[in-house]
Amino acid sequence: MYRTHTCGELRIENVGLKVTLAGWIQKSRKLGGMTFIDLRDRYGITQLVVDASAEQELQDCASSLGREFVIQVTGEVLERQSKNPKMPTGDIELKIETLKVLNKSVTPPFTIEENSDGGEDIRAKYRYLDLRRPPLQRALALRHRLAQEIRSYLDKEGFMEIETPYLIKSTPEGARDFVVPSRMNPGSFYALPQSPQTFKQLLMVAGYDRYFQIVRCFRDEDLRADRQPEFTQIDCEMSFVEQEDVLNTFEGMMRQMFRNALGVEIANPIPRMSWYDAMDFYGSDKPDIRFGMKIHEVTDLVKGHGFQVFDSCEYIGAIAATGCAEYTRKELDALTEWVKRPQVGAKGLVYIKCNADGSFKSSVDKFYSAEALKTIAEAAGASAGDLVLILCGQKRKTQTMLGVLRLEMGNRLGFRDPKVFAPLWVVDFPLFEWDDETSRFYAMHHPFTAPKPEHIEWYYSDKKEDLERVCANAYDFVLNGTELGGGSIRIHEAAMQERMFEILGISKEDAEYKFGFIINAFKFGAPPHGGLAFGFDRVCALFGGQETIRDYIAFPKNNQGRDVMIDSPSAIDDVQMEELYLSSTWTPQE
Ligand code: ASP
After folding, report:
1. Which parts of 192-242 fold into alpha helices (H)?
2. CB of 164 closer than 6 A to ligand 1?
C-alpha cells in the first residue's frame, strides 16, 4: 500500500498511530536541528518532521529534498507543540521514521500554493502544476459535484444520457462553425457542433422522450467576454411537454444542485419576468435581481420644460442610486465621463441630488422648479439621500445604457454579493429581431423555436408590426445578471417550420441543404417537444462565486483561442495537408 491516509486526513484523535503518507513537497525548512516538511496532495497538507535524534542518513535525505519532490514517508502521528488552527491537520505532525523519494522534480516555475507568485501566462504553460494548487482543485471538485447532482437528478426524473456525434453538419446556433476536413470525402468538411440541437430533436422523433447530455460544444467566436471556443452544455430535451413542464423540471434540478453542492436554498418558486419587463425595468435581458434600483421611465414628466436635449428625444429614463446624494462635483464629473465611454455610449448624464434636508439640486436646475425635480425624483423611486441619474435617447438603447449604469452603481454600493443567489426565468421573448442593416428578421433564439400559441395569428400575418410582436415560447435561466441557460418549445409541424424559414428569408433550397434531414424526419410523426441547455462552465463559476470560467475548466484556452501548454493550434505537415486535399496560401504576417 502506497499510503494509509491522505495528507488532509489526520487529526488529534490519530496521535500515536503509525501511518504512511505519499505526496508532493510544498516546502521544507530547517529550524535548529529539526527539518519541517509540508507534504501536499489534493486532500490537504500534513507537516512532517525529522528531529535531531534521527539517524544521520535520514537527516541528510530530508535536507536534500526539493520543492515538488514526490516522497513516501512512514512514521508516528504526534501532537504538535505549536498548533496551527488555520489548517485542518494543524494539531498534529508526522515524525518521519522512513523516507523514500518516489520521484525528483526540477524546480517549479512558480509557487504551488493557495496564492501563486506566477503570472497567468506561465501558469497556463504549466497548467498541470497550476492544477496542483488548492483553488483549482476546489473548482474542479465543485464541477465534479455539480455534474453528479445533475446526473442523479435527471436519472431520477427518467432522463436518458445519450451521446451525439461531434463530426456533423452545421447547426443553427448562429455562430461560426469549426470545420474538419474529411480525408475520405475529398473537398468535404464536417462541422463541429455548436450544440446538439438537431440531434436532440431527432431523438424526440425517435421516441427517447427525456434526453440529456453533459456535452462539449464548439463555437468559433471572438473570445472577448470570458468565452471558450469549446465549452460544455447541460443539454436537455423532453417530449409531450409545455413550457411549464420544462421550467418546473429544471427548477427542480437547480434546487437540488444548490442544496447539495452549496447548502443553499433558492427562491421557491423561482420568479419569472417577461423579456419586456426585463428590458423596461432592468435594461437587460438578464436582470440582476439581487438588488432594486430599477429603471423608471420619466419621459412625460421631464419633457416640456424647455431643455432642448430632453424635449427632442424619444425616451427618458432614470434610476435612483441609493444613498449617493453626497457625491461630490468631482465624482459626478467622473461618473459622467464613465457613461460616455464607448462601452456605455451615453451622450451625457443628468442628475438630481435628493438631499437629506429635503432640498433638491440638479445639473439642469435652470429648467426645473424644485417642485418639478421632486416629482421626477419620486417617479424615479428616490428617497432622501439618493441620487437620481437620468439618461435619454432611443428607448431600448437608453434602457440598455441605464442597465449598465445600474450594475455599475450596484457594484459600487456592494449590492452584488457573489454569495447571494437570485435566480430568475426570463420568458416571453420576441420571436424575431429586426435588423435594419440587412433589412430582415433574425430568430432571437433559433429557427426551431415555436411562437406562443396565442400569437399564431400574428405569426402568419404579412405585416412587420405583427411579426414584431410575436412572442417565442422560449425561456432563459438567469442567475445574478448572467444568462446560464435557455431553450424553447420547438416547432414540430412542417407548415409552421416552413413559415419560419420564409420569415427568416431562408429559401426552400437553402433550408433543404442545411436542415433537410430534420425537415424530413419531422414528416414521420414528430411529437410536441421542447428543451433547453445550460452553460455548464458558467454554472460552475457562478456557484463558485467567481467571474471567470477558466478556473473551472481543467485545460482551457487563452483569449486568442490558444492552448499554450500543448502549443495548439499549430501547423500540420505537408503530407497531412495533401492527404486532406488542402493547400495553404497563408503566410505569416509581419
Ligand atoms: N441549443 C440551444 C443553445 O445552445 C439551447 C436549446 O434551445 O435547447 O442555446
Report:
1. 197-205
2. no
CB of 532 closer than 6 angstroms to any ligand 1 atom: yes
- Determine the pLDDT at residue 138: 96
Whole-number average pLDDT of the chain = 95
CA dihedral 300, 278, 288, 550 (to 10 degrees): -130
Tens-digit pLDDT profile for residues 137-171 = 999 999 999 999 999 999 999 999 999 999 998 77
Q: What pTM value is reported for the model?
A: 0.93
CB-neighbour burial class of residue 438 (10 A; exposed 0-12, middle 13-18, buried 19+): exposed
Who has greater pLDDT, 514 or 442? 442
Counting atoms of ligand 1 from 1, which one is nearest the CA of 449? 7
- Run of H or E residues at 425: strand 423-427
Answer whether 23 contacts ligand 1 (Cβ < 6 A): no
Distance 487 CA to ligand 1 centre (A): 5
232 Cβ inside 6 Å of ligand 1: no
Distance CA 221, CA 230 (A): 10
Which distant-in-sequence residues (6+ apart) come within 8 Å of 339 by Cβ?
A: 346, 348, 349, 391, 401, 405
Cell numbers standing for residue 484: 446560464
Q: What are phi and psi of 51, to 5 degrees?
A: -100, 175
What distance in angstroms lies between residue 195's CA and the mean position of ligand 1's atoms? 7
Q: What is the dihedral of CA 223, 235, 243, 247, to 10 degrees?
A: -90
Reported as a pLDDT band with limits 50, 70 and 90, residue 590 is: low
CB atoms within 10 A of CB 17: 14
Judged against a pLDDT cut of 90, whether residue 32 lies above it is answered with no
Find out whether the beta carbon of 197 lies less than 6 Å from any atom of ligand 1: yes
pLDDT, position 422: 97
Q: Is the C-beta atom of 486 inside 6 A of ligand 1?
A: yes
Q: Which atom of ligand 1 sits closest to the CA of residue 235?
A: 8
Residue 21 CA to residue 26 CA, distance in Å, equals 14
Q: Is-contact 356 323, C-beta < 8 A?
A: no
Residue of higher predicted confidence among 547 and 278:
278
- DSSP E strands in 69-162: the ranges are 70-79, 92-103, 160-161
Q: For residue 462, how far is its CA from the centre of ligand 1 (angstroms)?
A: 28
pLDDT digit string, tens, across residues 374-418: 999 999 999 999 999 999 999 999 999 999 999 999 999 999 999
**Measured from the CB, is residue 483 less than 6 Å from ligand 1?**
no
Q: What is the pLDDT of residues 469-481, one digit of tens each?
A: 999 999 999 999 9
Name which residue sits closest to atom 3 of ligand 1, judged by CA.
533
Provide the 3-class DSSP secondary structure of residue 461: coil
* Ligand 1 pocket check for 473: Cβ under 6 Å: no
